[in-house]
Specification:
By secondary structure, the chain is an alpha/beta fold. The protein contains 14 helices and 16 strands. The longest helix is centred in the middle third of the chain and has 17 residues. Bound molecules: alpha-D-glucopyranose.
């Protein structure tokens, strides 16, 4: 392992998220896979990332893009084999990259052996106790046990032929496990060991705050009493391994105090900062969010993380080009006017902000190319249950999952080998200008900005984990130092602003005009 990832690497790592289906297709079937990832590991390490997070790679009917897992100890044949996954781990380590796998403890696929056994076992069988099977209401049980709604829309209960209903917080193809059952707990600790034994450095924990529930008693499922015991157990498992294995929570909770409890020294190591991701492009709002983030992490001794994109969120070039720049799933609408030029300028500025704040940072594949949300996908091609279960009102998440453009002037832009069938989602023809090849060597490209920023992140000791201090700045401007020699300035105001006294501009997202930083731009400075 290289020096840059030594020690508690997750405290300051820049983590590159690989959405495997859309990263690179090695075997020519139009779907990304492990062979494609292996062929492009050097792209990620050359970019300057310290680790990769790979979205679920397990066998799955893909009712929710792989978050419907049929077997937690194997690899979906569309991606490759377990032996190939072990090679990915080894080769990533050889190139200085840590590897984070994505585990989904709240639910499985309806094709999982346990759920199939529960269906076959019938009412009252012990196999049903691993899930939430209940009788319905009404004279003949024809009404769901409660009125709880699924996070993806529609009822959270589905009836099976023998008349019972089962709970699914997400799609019907994703039955919820019953975490009150000790067998579920033992199974997941064993699955954790299975992957840690294979050299996995970190586990991203999907929907981490919703495992505990008692659906007949209450509709509440977020952050319920008893959830912390589960992660204390996981931490004991991870700590028994040599090397620093990291537990990383997908904890969506509006209450930041409650969020921080997951990061106590006996629980998870880090968690995604969704309050930053959801924050408006507004200096005051961002400053308040950054202050709160740091304040809630400090008492538990955990590093913050900074995220502007992932496989669930409208891509930031699109988001920042809109009137409303906050993010909420419930607000997603089709046909929202968007200024992509403005969005890209802000996304560039946001990148330098995110990569210089104290803690870890996440880069979602394609973010480094400045890809926009693909909004004109034909409805017949959309796969996301969020789209289908909202009756099409919500465009869903397919638009941020379109396969990566690598090279060439037309689709599939090097995503698949020649003569392969079309990629599983079509790429816009305009991405000819957004390929890795096209952006490489162009000093004004998003890719070269990310490369330069990550290079500096590795050479500037004060970046990554540590502390920051705000410095005086005009209204609408964020300015802070890291250590004594480094400052980041982000101009979110409508006017150009003077930079604080400095010795050198290390990097800027748009040319300075008479030495001044323009609107929606940022700069990294070497101070005197
Ligand atoms: C997480 C994943 C998302 C998935 C959901 C259900 O939020 O990031 O993609 O649909 O969990 O597993």
């Amino acid at each position: 392992m290289s020096d840059r990832t030594a020690g508690e690497w997750w405290r300051g790592a820049a983590i590159y998220q690989v959405y495997l289906r859309s990263f690179a297709d090695g075997n020519g079937d139009g779907v990304g896979d492990l062979a494609g990832l292996r062929a492009h590991l050097s792209y990620i390490s050359d970019l300057g990332a310290d680790a990769i997070w790979i979205n679920p790679w397990f066998p799955s009917p893909m009712a929710d893009g792989g978050y419907d897992v049929a077997d937690f100890r194997a690899i979906d044949p569309v991606f490759g084999t377990l032996a190939e996954a072990e090679k990915v781990i080894q080769e990533a380590h050889d190139s200085g990259l840590r590897v984070i796998a994505d585990l989904v403890p709240n639910h499985c696929s309806d094709q999982h052996a346990w759920f199939q056994a529960a269906l076959a076992g019938g009412p009252g069988s012990p196999s049903r106790e691993l899930f939430w099977f209940r009788k319905g209401r009404g004279a003949n049980g024809e009404l769901p046990p409660t009125d709880l709604r699924s996070i993806f829309g529609g009822p959270a209960w589905t009836r099976v032929p023998d008349g019972e209903w089962y709970l699914h917080l997400f799609a019907p193809e994703q039955p919820d496990f019953n975490w009150d059952n000790p067998a579920v707990r033992e199974e997941f600790e064993d699955i954790l060991r299975f992957w840690l034994d294979r050299g996995i450095d970190g586990i991203r924990i999907d929907s981490a705050a919703v495992l505990i529930k008692d659906p007949l008693v209450s509709d509440e499922y977020e952050d319920q009493p008893g959830i912390h015991e589960i992660y204390e157990g996981w931490r004991r498992v991870a700590d028994a391994y040599s090397g620093d294995r990291a537990l990383i929570g997908e904890v969506w909770l509006p209450d930041q105090e409650a969020f921080a409890k997951y990061l106590r020294p006996t629980e998870l190591n880090t968690a995604f900062n969704f309050s930053f991701l959801q924050c408006a492009w507004d200096a005051e709002a961002l400053r308040a969010c950054i202050d709160e983030t740091i304040a809630i992490h400090a008492p538990v001794g955990a590093p913050a993380t900074w995220v502007i994109a992932n496989h669930d969120i409208t891509r930031e070039v699109t988001r920042f080009g809109r009137k409303v720049t906050t993010f909420a799933f419930a607000d997603k609408r089709r046909d929202t006017p968007t200024d992509l030029v403005l969005g890209e300028r802000r996304a560039r500025a946001a990148a330098l902000l995110m990569l210089s704040l104290p803690g870890g940072a996440y880069i979602y594949q394609g973010e480094e190319l400045g890809l926009e949300e693909v909004e004109d996908l034909d409805d017949s091609l959309r796969e996301d249950p969020m789209f289908h279960r909202s009756g099409g009102a919500n465009p869903g998440r397919d638009g941020c999952r379109v396969p990566m453009p690598w090279s060439g002037s037309e689709p599939p832009f090097g995503f698949s080998p020649a003569d392969a069938p079309a990629p599983w989602l079509p790429q816009p023809t305009g991405w000819a200008a957004r390929t890795v090849a096209a952006e490489t060597g162009d000093p004004s490209s998003m890719l070269e900005l990310y490369r330069a920023a990550l290079r500096i992140r590795h050479t500037e000791e004060a970046l990554g984990d540590g502390v920051m201090s705000w410095i005086a700045a005009p209204d609408g401007v964020l300015a802070f130092t890291r250590g004594h020699g480094f400052a980041c300035v982000v101009n979110l105001s409508a006017d150009p602003v003077d930079l604080p006294a400095h010795r050198e501009v290390l990097l800027n997202t748009a040319p300075l005009v008479d030495g001044r930083l323009g609107p929606d731009s940022s700069a990294w400075l070497r101070l005197a």
